[in-house]
Here is the input.
Amino acid sequence: TAGITQAPTSQILAAGRSMTLRCTQDMRHNAMYWYRQDLGLGLRLIHYSNTAGTTGKGEVPDGYSVSRANTDDFPLTLASAVPSQTSVYFCASSEGQGAGEQFFGPGTRLTVL
Amino acid sequence: LAKTTQPISMDSYEGQEVNITCSHNNIATNDYITWYQQFPSQGPRFIIQGYKTKVTNEVASLFIPADRKSSTLSLPRVSLSDTAVYYCLVGDILTGGGNKLTFGTGTQLKVEL
Here is the structure.
């Protein structure tokens, strides 16, 4: 099985443009997460979804939105990108809503100029 | 929310045992302790999880004292390929904690010849 796939692998985006980062899992996990990773700051949670149809805000949600229309997909949208959103973005999933094992995707490297 | 403190970096040589200690003084009764490993340009990967005493798998051991205010990840006979960042997290694995996990900056382990 593929586990978690993310697309694109990398992207250069002009400031002010919008973009959607895609995340798909094939493990039928209930919970999904979006993190950003910046040098010196570790991984920070942006948004999460405990189950299809629900979403919640993480530590750094401003400038991002998510949707969870079905179990498998959890897209992350930047409505109007700013340079401070330059980062590596990781999508993850876990079987339950608790702090059990999270499975991570390969990441998307985004550069906003 | 239980926060964790771990060393920023550690150095070791191939063949040595490495012990990384994590402090979590305000761990809650239902919290479990989980360790992840992250290689450059990859998402974190689950290593081990435990509640108390000792847990061992094919990769590592996790030692948790009776008061559970700290834990130690033990990597036996490390090799160059164990060079990575190691994260210690605490959270409730059952009732909803996946969105409350804090990865922090982790411990950068460097293994040399």
About this structure: The mean pLDDT of chain B is 91. The beta strands of chain B are 9-13, 18-23, 31-38, 45-50, 53-56, 61-64, 70-75, 84-92, 107-112.
